[in-house]
Amino acid sequence: MTLTVGVDVGGTKVLAGVVTPEGEVLATVRRPTPSQDVNDTARVIAEVVRELDEDYAIEAVGVGAAGWIDASRSVVLHAPNLAWRREPLRDRIQERVDLPVVVENDANAAAWAEYRFGAGRDQHHLLLITVGTGIGGGAVVNGEVYRGEFGMAAEFGHVRVVPDGHPCGCGASGCFEQYASGKALVRFAKERARDDRTGARTLLEMAGGDVDAIDGPMVTRAAQAGDTVSLASFSELGDWLGWGMADLVSAWDPRCIILGGGVAEAGDLLSIPARETYAKVTALRGRTEAAEVRMAALGNKAGLVGAADLARIR
Ligand SMILES: [Zn+2]
């Protein structure tokens, strides 16, 4: 049995796991991401790989990173939420662990995992939108990860949706990520809570009465408890996502579009308004058949499972 390690490097945590050819995760290790220092990040990735390599016979390593990766799958060109700028990540890790390494965009890796083992197992054309702190995008076309000419295809989060809109970590402004991500959810909730403290009563209780202390998990918990402002913030987020999905379907025509990421784990709170808007817009555009919207099946392990599997077929 060929075992590989997948490492998911996000803005806050590094999650690594040993993965079988069937997509089963045998063991995981988790560390905080030292996001301000690129050498530290490579060191932490190498450490978690070596730790897993002690107990399992590892043959290759796949790293899923929240950034734009070059077409040779070795250099992180730019990471809006991490310190990497033209970072030769593959070589830096390879010299520390003495195993073959591939680097993949984290959402591409997650899309691959959902295609191979998750919500898109029966489909050959699918898109994945990960709704987390930011927005990630991945595309599987004809049963392969579609990376584009320069390795940056499917960066759905950085399509401009509002001219002169909210500034984005990528350097531009008005990006989809600023309206349909966890960050956007918190902004919507703060704006609404300032105007409507009564409707935000439950949410503000959780935040100790301080609007600025509101965070994403609080908005989810308050919405589950029926807090009006939190529910309205989810509706607003879902509406943006529904429009975004309809636009992506117009451009890509996949068989299914999968919603994943930490915020999507809020389930119906997000999927109901997103599906409603999506159905309305696709119907308006005269589409009699359009991609089915599905929720991701592999949760927060999708990135590491996909990266590990892509390392196997490198
Ligand atoms: Zn952007």
Number of helices: 10
- Principal-axis shape: globular
Helix content: 25-40%
Domains (count):
2
Proportion of strand residues: 15-25%
Kindly provide the name of the CATH class of the largest domain.
Alpha Beta
Average pLDDT:
94
Nearest-angstrom radius of gyration? Answer: 19 Å
**The CATH homology group name of the largest domain:** ATPase, nucleotide binding domain
Main sheet makeup? 5 strands, mixed
Major beta sheet, strand line-up: 3-2-1-4-8
> What string, H for helix and E for strand, traces the elements in order?
EEEHEEEEHEHEEEHHHHHEHEH
CATH T-level fold name of the largest domain: Nucleotidyltransferase, domain 5
- The counted number of beta strands is 13
| CATH architecture classification name of the largest domain | 2-Layer Sandwich
Report how far apart the termini are: 17 Å
Ligands in the model, by name, code or SMILES, are:
zinc ion
> From the helix content, strand content and strand pairing, which structural class follows?
alpha/beta
Low-pLDDT residue intervals, each spanning 5 or more residues: none
